[in-house]
């Protein structure tokens, strides 16, 4: 009957796969679940749970934005005043810089270069008026003659100064030479700048730009200078020149001072050297002039172009024409 007590629909015990010892060993093992798995077992704070715990237990508190306070009117006014003072200082600095640049531009010549003649110290109130550079502006074939004319001008200035000293020395011995002493001062003050402007600068410009007009102007003025050198070397009495006649007269006079006579003779020799050198240089410049191809027609063209393109001449002509037109219009009315 025991066979009838057996349930035919019950699953046999040996057929349950989960009752296999190998499966039950794995399911009952102490392996940690996936959500508790730490991929960084060596790291003390590894894993998602550890990071979450650390972030939750962090001692730092979140930043709190402090409410902004508006500055008082006094502080705002002081800041605005400081800003205005800073802007004013900046404007004054820029104005000073512009003034300095303007002065530099005014001191530059027509070529845009810094004037270097006369070579005066920077603390001197008078600034250089001309730019001069033989090696840069004068062609090599003309530099020697141009420098010789420049040295002649300097030699003439030294001679005029010594002539003043000679006339002063003879005036101290004889009061009748007072006119010569006064005229010697006038010649030194007059001829020193005029000779530079009237015959040295024209020949410098002529060699620099091959200007026919400058050549003709130099020839005319320098020929007059040669005549003046000859007159000074001759030494006409009461003309303010310690030339040969004046020097010989002072030596041959009764109770003549030998030292004063020697000074006057030396000045007469210097005037003679000036006259001789001026004649030699005049011939040298004329020889160079003939090789440059300059002519009187070119000089006329340069003069006319220079006059008609001059702004001062144009302004004066326009003013004269306007005045004449206004006068004619008023006369017709």
Q: What attributes characterize this protein structure?
A:
mainly alpha, single chain, 333 residues
Layout: helices, strands, pairs:
Elements (H helix, E strand, L loop, with lengths): L20 H7 L20 H9 L16 H35 L26 H4 L2 H34 L4 H32 L2 H23 L9 H9 L5 H35 L3 H13 L2 H22 L1
Helix pairs in contact: 5-6, 5-9, 6-7, 7-9, 7-10, 8-9
Overview of this structure, please?
Helix content is 67%, strand content 0%. The chain is built from eleven helices and no strands. Among the domains are: 85-131, no CATH class; 138-304. α6 (178-209) packs antiparallel against α7 (212-234). It is elongated, with a radius of gyration of 53 Å. By secondary structure, it is mostly helical. The N and C termini lie far apart (165 Å). Residues 43-58 have low confidence and may be disordered.
Q: What's the shape? A: elongated
- Secondary-structure-based class equals mainly alpha
- How far apart the termini lie comes to 165 Å
Work out the helix count. Answer: 11
- String of helices and strands: HHHHHHHHHHH
- Biggest sheet record: none
Bin the strand percentage. under 5%
Proportion of residues in helical segments: 55-70%
**Integer average pLDDT:** 76
Q: List unreliable stretches of 5+ residues.
A: 43-58
Number of strands: 0
Radius of gyration: 53 Å
Short description:
By secondary structure, the chain is an all-alpha fold.
